[in-house]
Amino acid sequence: MKRTRYVSAAAAVVLIVGGPVTAAAAVSADAARTTAAPALRADVTAQGAAKAALKHYPGVVESLDKDGTVWHVDVISKDGKGHAELEVSASGAVTEQNRDTGENAGENKALVSAKVTAEGAMKAALAAHPGQVTTVEWDDDDGTASWHVEVKGKDGKSWDAQVDPTTGKVTRSGSDSDSDDDNN
Prior knowledge:
By secondary structure, the chain is α+β, with helices and mostly antiparallel strands. The protein has four helices and eight strands, in the order ααββββααββββ. A hairpin with a 6-residue loop joins strand 7 and strand 8.
């Protein structure tokens, strides 16, 4: 009962001081904040983050990793000499964290010339294990190039898939709960 009196008294003061226009503006501004808030959170998928990053910095995605609501995306330029570290927010906004133009093109040759891109590797991994991609990474440390893709399945399990950069086939996969390391 007291709360109703306070609200009524506050509304009366607004009407007396500012008139009906101010009161309507206050109500509509409050309604705008309420309806605009959910639109700020879109939760971009890995595929959406890759697309946004490549639009900002054309090239080839080298790695993509989700950290909370932010995607960290590394992109190598098409000539292999440039590198950009980007962040893609849940709404799809891209922020450039670092850019380097002094990369060794020879070190990036296999990635830049790979038939299967990060986007293709994600598609192959999702065909093998439906869910949401959480990480994609180019791996050529042992001399054999491949894409490493992590997928969080609808069942909550995380799956690791290794995708061949020439054929797009998943060559090895396993869940994080597998006890046999040869399957990971």
